[in-house]
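User: I'm putting together a teaching handout on how multi-component assemblies are represented. Below are the sequence lines for each component of a complex, exactly as they appear in our records. Could you produce the 3D structure of the whole assembly as structure tokens, so the students can see both representations side by side? Please keep the chain order the same as the input.
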Amino acid sequence: MITVNEVRVPNIGDFKEVEIIELMVKAGDRVLPEQSLITVESDKASMEIPAPVAGVVREIKVKVGDKVSEGSIVLLMDSESPAVSVADTKPASNISKNVLDQTAPPVTSPVATIPAVVPPAVAIPAAPVDPLFKAHASPSVRQFARELGVDIARVSGAGPKGRIQRTDVQNFVKSALAASSAPRSSNPGAAGLPFNLPAWPQVDFAKFGPVETVPLTRLRKLAGANLHRNWISIPHVTQFDEADITELEAFRKSNSVESEMQGFKLTLLAFLVRACVTVLREHPQFNASLDKTGENIVIKKHYHIGVAVDTPDGLVVPVIRDADRKGVFDLARELAEMSRLARDRKLKPGDMQGGTFSISSLGGIGGMSFTPIINAPEVAILGVSRSVIRPVWTGKAETGQFQPRLMLPLSLSYDHRVIDGAAGARFTTALASVLSDIRRSLL
Ligand code: CAO
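Assistant: Of course. Below is the structure of the complete assembly, with chains in the same order as your input.
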């Protein structure tokens, strides 16, 4: 007999009104027991709500951004097995007040056959956790980590939104084994790495003057772990160049009124995205990734451009999809919307996936050049600094003259395993040429 089950938010400890940040299934999806259905997040923790039994999702009752508490209905599920209560499925000791301990299945109540389940009146042991950072992993991955004796809070997730996957736990164990077999220091910057470095300086900073200790945000920790991995595992080379954007800037300004009437700014960044696509088409190895074996280059025939956005919580890189099919006005509108969503913390995990090349612009802030870190598994990233007017010798060597030109500094970091130095220089030369010739950048 098919039973319609209400899947509810399980016991999530002291947290109330947590936000739904991700729907991982849709109506009609067939799900397995323990498969994650939705992710909720408080200001301190995130948690996936798993399916209590196998079945088919009948109706989702919530949307991203909704606030839910223990007992809120999140979806209806058709199943052949009757839904089960918390008390029926797990010993009480497995149910933790810790919001991240996912051993407790969601409270479910079948609409037709079983009355609503009342949360069990059991003594709930609180697990010791770092109050500032809670890992983001499915119940099965947590179980796997427990079996290996791994503290999941120490594992960096490579999955969407930093979610910890089984392979992350395996890699953590491998790194720990490699590190323990080599004599090494207690360098927190090299945690888990097979490097033999001198000990990290242990300094009591307060001895030298007043200090304040501020915890890193969750986003900063996740981004930091990924940046660290990319920095140490990709052989970076950064090629510097500059583009004459005098005419491009004049063109941009002459069209700004029209875009502002439509409610958005026609930014330089939109032209940069467009110009990058033009050059990526001519230099496909920059729009590529190494495959899993590291022995093949996957050249992508689509152009999804990631743009680094600085938010109060840290750096995020939303992706402009199919940038090759969009004009500068559309790109500018979308960039404005993406930046707004990023700063309001409203980006969805999918908005940050599938990038093929990234741009990091610090031009609105200042600086002459920098060395951006590649956003793996991409193989190149363009850094852009503040444009300046300076005298440039134009015309022939003897008969030319200095003219004031608006010059834009470019810093292209690329993966030297995939891209040679000559190709890097050709890329920035081509980009400078496209940016200085407005007709080419609009092609
Ligand atoms: N040279 C000179 N001026 C520039 C410029 C450049 N290269 N780029 C932007 N500007 C100007 C803009 O025209 C704007 O001027 P007005 O206010 O007079 O119109 C001003 O600087 C502010 O621009 P902005 O930064 O708000 O907008 P943007 O489109 O240039 O950039 C965004 C948007 C989201 C990329 C940016 O806000 C941001 O977050 N940048 C930081 C990215 C970052 O942290 N990267 C580091 C990663 S480490 O690898």
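A couple of points students might notice: The chain has three domains: 3-88, 139-215, 236-441. The mean pLDDT is 82.
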